[in-house]
Structure formats: structure tokens, C-alpha cells
């Protein structure tokens, strides 16, 4: 199965990387850009055919490694 | 308008970060995980109501700053 995972900062958590990109965009003349938030996007293969098992595995991977659940939230799609 | 941008490495480009995550997952016991590829996911607001203009702006932002088009490709959604 193919998994697509999005890891983003929780609302209210300061995003210095997003702020830096926002300022860079504006200095390049893109004044209309604002509220830039940056996260991680991962794709991976799961050698699992049972959907429920794959979802459980993916959730554990996110909780244990892919996301820092103190400041980040995650969502995933399986196909 | 709200823009969602995915920036990922082009096919064939080595992904050391993905490899590192893959090995970490496997050392945590997730043997079924493979081919991990890591990219950037960005959300931003565009102060533009005309869709065509917003798309043109977003494409320029990607080409100039958000993606290194030598090794990365990008895709975006506007809503």
C-alpha cells in the first residue's frame, strides 16, 4: 500500500520557518502572500495488504517517529 | 485564497532524509515500511480573488523560491 503523510504544526504554535519564507516572498515582491505555514510531506510504501493493519501501523509510525505530537499534528491517506 | 503547495524531490534524485527515516522506522520494528520520500508541504493565504492571477502568482513563487526546480517538482491546490 502507498501511504501519504502530512505533518504540520498545531494551530497557535509559532512557525519561524513559515515566517522566514513569508518575508522572503514579500521581499521578492509577492506582497499578497501571508500566513505561510510549513510542514513535512512523506510518501512511503507499506508491505501490508490489510487496510486496518496498515492504518494501525501508520498511526504508530506517526506517533513514535514521524511527528512530534507535542507540537505537531498528522494526517495520512492510504491507497 | 488558500494555497496548498507540495514540493517533492524528482524521481531518481537520492533522498538521504527519506533513507534515514526509513532506517529509523525499521529499527523501531516497522519492517513493512520502505521507499520513504520526504518533501515540504506549505499552506499560505493569497490576497487575490482572481483565480488565474492567483495561479500565476503561485507558480512564480514556486519557481523563484519555494522549490529548487533543478531537483524538486511542485504541485499546488487553490481553494
TrEMBL record, chains A, B:
Transmembrane segments: none annotated. Its EC number is 6.3.5.3. The keyword Signal does not apply. InterPro entries: PurS (IPR003850), PurS-like_sf (IPR036604). Keywords: ATP-binding, Cytoplasm, Ligase, Nucleotide-binding, Purine biosynthesis. It is an enzyme of class 6 (ligase). Pathway: Purine metabolism; IMP biosynthesis via de novo pathway; 5-amino-1-(5-phospho-D-ribosyl)imidazole from N(2)-formyl-N(1)-(5-phospho-D-ribosyl)glycinamide: step 1/2. GO terms for biological process: 'de novo' IMP biosynthetic process. GO terms for molecular function: ATP binding; phosphoribosylformylglycinamidine synthase activity. GO terms for cellular component: cytoplasm. The keyword ATP-binding applies. It catalyses: N(2)-formyl-N(1)-(5-phospho-beta-D-ribosyl)glycinamide + L-glutamine + ATP + H2O = 2-formamido-N(1)-(5-O-phospho-beta-D-ribosyl)acetamidine + L-glutamate + ADP + phosphate + H(+). It is found in: Cytoplasm. Part of the FGAM synthase complex composed of 1 PurL, 1 PurQ and 2 PurS subunits. Belongs to the PurS family. PANTHER family: PHOSPHORIBOSYLFORMYLGLYCINAMIDINE SYNTHASE SUBUNIT PURS (PTHR34696:SF1). Part of the phosphoribosylformylglycinamidine synthase complex involved in the purines biosynthetic pathway. Catalyzes the ATP-dependent conversion of formylglycinamide ribonucleotide (FGAR) and glutamine to yield formylglycinamidine ribonucleotide (FGAM) and glutamate. The FGAM synthase complex is composed of three subunits. PurQ produces an ammonia molecule by converting glutamine to glutamate. PurL transfers the ammonia molecule to FGAR to form FGAM in an ATP-dependent manner. This is Phosphoribosylformylglycinamidine synthase subunit PurS.
Amino acid at each position: 500500500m502507498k501511504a501519504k503523510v502530512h505533518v504540520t504544526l498545531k494551530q497557535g504554535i509559532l512557525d519561524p520557518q513559515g515566517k522566514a519564507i513569508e518575508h522572503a516572498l514579500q521581499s521578492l515582491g509577492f506582497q499578497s502572500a501571508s500566513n505561510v505555514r510549513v510542514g513535512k510531506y512523506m510518501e512511503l510504501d507499506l508491505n501490508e495488504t490489510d487496510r486496518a493493519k496498515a492504518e494501525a501501523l501508520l498511526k504508530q509510525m506517526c506517533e513514535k517517529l514521524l511527528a512530534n505530537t507535542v507540537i505537531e499534528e498528522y494526517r495520512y491517506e492510504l491507497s
